[in-house]
Write a structure and sequence with these properties.
Keywords: Signal. Residues 50-135 form the Purple acid phosphatase N-terminal domain. It is a single chain. The chain is of the alpha/beta class. It is built from eight helices and 22 strands. It is globular. One fe (ii) ion binds next to loops.
Length: 496
Amino acid sequence: MKAIKMIVIFAAILLASCSDDNDRNDTIPEPAPEPEPAPVACSGAEINPERLFLQQLGTDRVIIKWRGDLEGDGGADNVCFGTDIDFMPEESLTAATETETGHLEAELTGLSPDTTYYYSVGGAASAAASRQFRTSPAGGALPADGNTRIWIVGDSGVAGYGKPEAAMVKEGFLSWVEADNGEPADLFLMLGDNAYNQGTDLEHQRAIFEVYPELLQTTSLWPTIGNHEMGSLGISRSADISSYELLGEEDNGGPDPEPSTMPYLNIFTLPANGEAGGLASGTEQYYSFDYANVHVVSLDSQLSIRDDDQRAAMLQWLIDDLSANSLDWTIVIFHHPPYTKGSHDSDDELFDIDQPIFAIREEFTPVFEDYGVDLAYSGHSHIYERSVYLSDHTGLSSTYDPATNAELNDDGEPASGQDDQQYTQVTRSGADDKVVYTVAGNGGKVTTLSEGYPHPAHFFSDLTVGSVVIDVNDAQLTASFINAEGAVLDYFTMTR
Ligand SMILES: [Fe+2]
Ligand SMILES: [Fe+2]
């Protein structure tokens, strides 16, 4: 009996103690979870390639492309990246792939829009300040700073044969930026003849990678094809990329032998498949992309335009691309200008290397006007020329009539685009059918004038080296011509 009593008491104590345990569960914290492992930094060594540049920068991806590295630096062929300049997480490590022409490409994906990233080439744990980029805002939104800045140079490739003016034009742009608000370029557009005299790999090295190295590490370069991209001393009339050939030069400094396709296409990785917005063109020769609320189209006025079938395909793609575009602003770039009286003459019907001028003017400018293009930029003529707000001008300069081709001011003269004569995207006639055409083939040299200079459709013409800066937000776009001293020699504003 005593034993049973003892068991009951023991059981009661046990129950009470269990109950105590239950009560304590409410007040005693759960055991702390295992701590997350601290992120590990990349552990590679930074390398300094002979050429390093960005391609196809979009809302969520970019291609980091380079060639060569310094002897003995031990860096690996990969990139690390992140939003903290001092910490490149190991999980960001992205291996590069080698192209046929000895370039390395790392495609960074999964990026956030409108965000600054830093990157290390070779996979170092921290990035150099010079190695950063900012992704495009998504969905046509404005960037966080409210403004997109676009820098445009044409025919800048003269450093390919040792001339200094392109570097001076760059300094002019940079000093203008410094005197303005310091905002760097978001986009860098090249208008063709980017590497004289034959567009070899070595000439690209001298004229692009050694002239703009800092800019190319932070800003995506979007080029178009000029006549000097096709070798043949700039006079090729071929429509076939495999006909690229060198004339009169033995050492081109590039891969040996130079591949039969254009070094332009070997060096650049362009969005044939709509990788950065826009409609897939299926070819790197022409393409489009979106940046914030700006749609940019790069046409091939050197090769595709010389073959009836290729030209028709490019024109139909352009119509389809522009039809699918709903962004606020549209800019088209191509090499051969429809209206010029500089070193080339858009009235010279006999000069066969300039036949693309006629095809652009007769077949493409009506499409620009009908499908909402706002601005068109060309080079080729080594001069700066900027048109009135123009439409329906497909003939020789003698057919230009301001009364029917130009936006007029209150005095019945072509509007300047300045002060109280700003252009509006939907014009006085109520149509979005006018375009401002600019020739900016003065990025590396200016040369001669043609008979009949200035072209009557141009509001402003000047034989001075320089470049173009476009500042654009949702309501207003201003395009300025900046000379090598950083002074603005011409500008116009368009509102919408
Ligand atoms: Fe040129
Ligand atoms: Fe040219």
